[in-house]
Amino acid sequence: MATGRTHRPATRSRGIPEATVARLPLYLRALTALSERSVPTVSSEELAAAAGVNSAKLRKDFSYLGSYGTRGVGYDVEYLVYQISRELGLTQDWPVVIVGIGNLGAALANYGGFASRGFRVAALIDADPAMAGKPVAGIGVQHTDELEHIIESNGVSIGVIATPAGAAQQVCDRLVAAGVTSILNFAPTVLTVPDGVDVRKVDLSIELQILAFHEQRKAGEEAGPDGGAPVAATRAAAAVAGEGKGPDGDVPAVMPA
Ligand SMILES: NC(=O)c1ccc[n+]([C@@H]2O[C@H](COP(=O)([O-])OP(=O)(O)OC[C@H]3O[C@@H](n4cnc5c(N)ncnc54)[C@H](O)[C@@H]3O)[C@@H](O)[C@H]2O)c1
């Protein structure tokens, strides 16, 4: 048994580094916005700025996809959307189950962004018998007794856990035993999973704690080292050093478990 994905390899199949894979959704989000505005082509600099990534890194990332753009023209937006979607496995439909339909689970079920990105909410599962049959986001909640049957009959490989922390490991074990191989965990606990199962953890309170750290540091800069150092100079130095909201400052809220 392995805890989380600490043993994760640095590269995936076809030699695309994990760091590149982690940036592909950022490019896709920026490209989708361009596509919606019917922008036909984009330069690496424009796209890098829109994605919050350094342009040399972007070109290197795209070279792994075999996409080099055309000199003086840039990248074809629609083709790149297709290429990245295909690389991320988004050109196929992914049925997803959400387990734990409380405040968070219901909010996730109601989030329209999953379907538009190829993730179909196939079922909502909760342990509370009083919830069974109740519609949430137009889908009837099913009892956990049905979990294995739901996973198998829908061919579900991705499960979302939004239960209290104390129930998350047991839910995870049942999902995995039923055939789920990827888990998005919102419960504030570290899950133990067998090799071959990917876990991603979302913890907004950790993100807030990181922001609190930066706020504290900014407050320290305002005061200056001796209580009155020039703030602009300190900020400029930080910018040159690539700190703060630099090209890669947009750290996703999802992190390996
Ligand atoms: N990651 C984040 O940023 C974030 C943000 C908010 C909440 N959370 C976490 O998400 C979880 C849910 O929060 P909430 O506010 O929706 O709680 P909630 O109490 O409103 O909902 C929890 C639901 O889980 C169900 N449940 C309990 N045990 C279960 C089991 N064994 N199998 C299936 N369902 C079960 C309950 O019946 C309930 O409907 C908590 O662990 C919370 O800490 C995380």
TrEMBL record:
Residues of the CoA-binding domain: 89-190
Residues that, per the record, bind NAD(+): G100, I101, G102, N103, L104, G105
Bias (Low complexity) ranges: 228-242
Keyword Repressor attributed: yes
Keyword annotations: Cytoplasm, DNA-binding, NAD, Repressor, Transcription, Transcription regulation
Subunit structure and binding partners: Homodimer.
The protein's name in its UniProt record: Redox-sensing transcriptional repressor Rex
